[in-house]
Amino acid sequence: MPETRPLSYSSLRVYLECPLRWKFLYVDRLPEAPRSYFSFGRTIHAVLEELLRPFLVTDSVPRISAGAAQRRLDEWEAGGRLVEGRPRALTRDEMLATYDRLWVREGFSSAEEEGRYRTLGENLLLRYYDRLVDEPPRPVAIEEHLQASLDGIPVHGYIDRIDLTPSGALEVLDYKTSREMSAKDAFSSDQLAMYQVLVEKNYALPVERLTLYHLRSLTPYASKPRDARAIGQFSEKVSAVADGVREERFEPTPGRVCERCEFRALCPEFREVPADERARLETLVDRFAALRREQGRVEDQLHAAADELHREAERLGVHRIRGHGLTALRRREEAWSFPVEGVRPLLEEHGLVPQASRLDDREIDRLARDPTVDPAVRRAIRSRGGRQVRWFWEVDAAPPDD
To answer: In the structure, how many helices (H) and strands (E) does the chain have?
Structure first.
């Protein structure tokens, strides 16, 4: 498996949800089960591609990269509907005919379900058509495949639409056919972060807006482009996935996606034990469960004895308590925790973020102890953290001194 396998947003999401499912799809190339909502979304996206093609604005849009896969007008199958070398806009009836022609029938559980989706799609497209006539867009790209590198990791994606804004910048739009959506979805979307990276690395114009366009309500939920910090956080996710793929870490991650996963029969989380092995393994499971219960009982007694030793050591002011042939030694363990949102601005102010790129408690504590860091800064870091002290007991096997 090549280490440079390009990551799309969908493959990134799959790995974060379940690495084993990623392996089934992208390494083993097992077919994904058709779903009604996937088929519906594919149909609507295909119709919108044909509907919006005549509105393309391709002049004076500078590119950084020539690695895009935007189809040329002479490659576009428009059935001969050309006006001065450009495809003519569809009429309402032509749009509905296109909808019928492009309808994807896979994945529906019944004719009744398919009928409901077809009616929903027709109503959605007719309302969108009226909006399009009233407010014609200025797309510079439709369903464009872009490729780029993010911190050395190849990424790619098909972007539904890139518009030219009145200010001469770019707006990245992604259509959504889901039931519900809110502005929060746009602000937190990793998909839009991925698309921003792709557009910025392929176009010379800046990205001004990122938009999730909710087709059922005809509502564009727009957000500002991600800042450097947000792109950095997204890059960390991409790096983690790329590392996991390269190192072949494909453990299953049980969760909500399991209910609709078509690979349950192949997954060790759900695969059944063969019938001829069940009796022997049932006995082993029962034995393990009994030992676990006994372990819990012993651990409860162990904790109670440790607590009592701690109270006695506090009362007497000692750290060593002799037994018959052994000595209990009282030990102290200290750990610091730091809220990232409280420490990051301080580290950024003093140029210390590269030294603690992970920003976990251990790295920040190391900076607070680093003699090369200004003492005042170390004290400021420490003041924003919290210390936890834990006492525990060890048993010295050596005979106690007389």
So the answer is: 12, 10
With vertex at residue 125, the alpha carbon angle to CA 120 and CA 126, rounded to the nearest 5 degrees, is: 100
Please indicate, yes or no, whether residues 191 and 70 belong to a single structural domain of this protein.
yes
Host domain of residue 304: 276-313
- How far apart, in whole angstroms, are the C-alpha atoms of residue 308 and residue 321? 12
State the pLDDT confidence band at 76, using cuts at 50, 70 and 90: very low
Q: Residues 338, 303: one domain?
A: no
CATH code of 164's domain? 3.90.320
Contact predicate 230/191, CB 8 Å: no
**pLDDT tens profile 313-343:** 999 989 999 988 899 999 988 888 998 888 8
**252 domain residue, yes or no:** no
Buried b (16+ CB within 10 A) or exposed e, 48-87: bbbbbbbbbeeeebeeeeeebebeeeeebeeeebeeeebb
Domain count, the chain: 3
Ordered strands of the 327-337 beta sheet: 320-322, 327-337, 386-396
